[in-house]
Write a structure and sequence with these properties.
5 helices
Length: about 140
């Protein structure tokens, strides 16, 4: 287990640090989307299962959706509902009643106990050198 200090305090005049954090967040969003597409392409018959929370899965789905780069077989950008249905079917997760609300509330998490998926993903990606944080929550 790796323990590290998470110093998130940014001084008002520290523009370079903000620029670095913005770049890291963009990169994390792109990597989440890449991992999401890889998970979405798994065959449901393989029996892959999601071991994380449904809330985290919906937040990852929403992040991938907002990137606007996932297309269906006809070349149309996938809707959020299509992505939710696809990932839930692939990973054998019960679809939440309100996936958009679930994703929105997840992204708003702040505090000492639980941060949003994007910030936890960034910590794993940049501080713990975890290769694929999202895929690590799937059992095949």
């Amino acid at each position: 287990m790796m323990i590290y200090y998470n110093n998130t305090h940014v001084k008002a005049g520290d523009e370079s640090r903000r620029a670095i954090e913005a770049r890291q967040e963009r990169e994390a969003r792109e990597r989440i989307t890449e991992e999401f597409v890889a998970l979405l392409s798994l065959d449901p018959d393989e029996g892959a299962r999601w071991t994380g929370t449904v809330t985290d899965l919906m937040e990852a789905t929403h992040i991938a959706y907002t990137q606007g780069t996932i297309c269906d077989s006809e070349g149309n950008t996938c809707t959020f509902t299509q992505l939710v249905t696809g990932i839930c079917d692939t990973l054998h997760v019960k679809r939440p009643r309100n996936p958009a609300g679930c994703a929105y509330q997840a992204a708003q998490r702040k505090g000492v106990r639980k941060n949003s998926l994007i910030y936890r993903y960034m910590r794993q990606m940049f501080h713990s050198a975890v290769e694929k944080p999202l895929s690590s929550k799937v059992i095949k």
